[in-house]
Amino acid sequence: MTREEAEKHHFFEHFKTALDCDDLRNQKIKAANNKSLKALKVFTEVLGYLKDDALETIKAQAKEGEFTASDFTWVLTIPAFWGHPAKRFMTDSATQAGLVTKGTKGKLMVVLESEAALTWCLKLQSDGFITQNHSRDSQDQPAGAAEPDTSCNDPARSQEAVQFTVKPEETKVLLETQRDGKRYLVVDCGAYSHFTVHEVLEGGAMKKLHNDSRYYLGGRNVDEKFKQFLREIFSYEVWREYEEKFPKEVQKMMYDFTRLKHLGEDIQISCPGNLVMLAQKKKEIKTFFDSVEGASWDDGSIRISREKLKSFYDKSLQGITGKLREILNKDFNIGYIVLVGGFAESQILHQNITDQFGPQYKVLCPLRPQEAILKGAVELGRNPKLVES
Q1: Does 87 score more than 90 pLDDT?
Q2: H-helix or E-strand spanning residue 213
Q3: Could you tell me which residues belong to the region Disordered (predicted)?
Q4: What sign for the dihedral angle of Cα 240, 241, 245, 250?
């Protein structure tokens, strides 16, 4: 894409978290180029693109027949702290995007992300959860790991699965999570962190008892700490010029970091040639690391120590732990803490929560936790009665 073409486009990053739920109809969202569009326009365009892509994918896979949007039930997920105005906003966006019409709005479901995630977790067998005895040495799901049959069950190609062992007594405890009357504290660990308490009623339907608003304690906070560290290494001046001239490369570096930060060990990230070029206008690239603790230059790559990586998590871990204690002290009679979302993949986060709360509560995290909301949404589309209206 040329610069002239790029200027005609808008790049919205984390736009869902930018919504102000008190005035959705008139709210505008600012793009990376400081231009703004109405939130309704942004969401309508995104949903329209996803609808068209889904229909094209189905058409390519189907052996026969034609499909339109009205042939399907569409399930949209929203954060637990969004209220009825946000649900109406999503319904309007979906209608304008062509997912449904005024006459087919019954084929649209708007469900809470925590509801969807917990729905999926309650369907899993014991070997569908990460336990304390796990490693990330395999790219494949462990043999015998049971997941319910779903059309969304393809493993993510870039995702590292988990190997673990489950003792008989652990299996019994894990399977008890599927009984009626249990209460769960669902921690949706994404770019932000959301905390929701659900009760499973007799018959299996879920009821929301409590939710806390979003907190800047998720993976995005860790990413920002990493970006600040790069700015410290290369200087504010060099990094600002690099961000302005090569934003696509910055996105690639952040993607690489997001993929590696979950491992909880020394990580190595390739340093793009354009960043090296800008830095070496100031001085030899290796010398930028002479006074830096926790990072070193390694033949074209930036190596970050495990200890430094863990320091990026400090604020998030302290905040999540504090918020969990606050909710658990409210006497909801919670038995289980369920970690979902992309940030829940982090060994550092999972181990910290287990160490802090494992003795009193069962800490559960499904394999590939970033997929729990998606897969749970499919299940709710099949059986809407799983959520109390």
Answers
A1: no
A2: strand 206-215
A3: 133-157
A4: negative
pLDDT band for position 136 (cuts 50, 70, 90)? very low
Q: Does a structural domain hold residue 389?
A: no
122 shares a domain with 75: no
Using the Cα atoms of residue 171, residue 175, residue 176 and residue 177 in order, give the sign of their dihedral.
positive
- 355 and 272 in one domain? no
* Residues in CB range of 9: below 8 A, 6 or more apart: 1
Q: 73 and 153 share a domain?
A: no
Which H helix or E strand runs over 75? strand 74-78
What does 251-303 look like in DSSP terms, one character per residue?
HHHHHHHHHHGGG-S-EEEEPPHHHHHHHHTTS-GGGGGTT-SSEEEETTEEE
- If one counts the domains in the chain, the total is 3
pLDDT at 16 over 80: no
By three-state DSSP, how is residue 76 classified?
strand
Q: Is residue 379 part of a domain?
A: no
Pair 300, 326 in one domain: no
Predicted local confidence at residue 238, as pLDDT: 94
Same domain, 264 and 340: no
Output phi, psi for 114, to 5 deg: -65, -35
Q: Write down the pTM of the prediction.
A: 0.80
Are 153 and 289 members of one domain?
no
Helix (H, G, I), strand (E, B) or coil at 121: helix
Residue 256 and residue 174 in one domain:
no
Q: Which of 79, 103, 127 is the last residue of a domain?
A: 103
Q: What is the pLDDT of residues 17-71, one digit of tens each?
A: 666 666 677 788 888 777 888 888 999 999 999 999 999 999 888 877 788 999 9
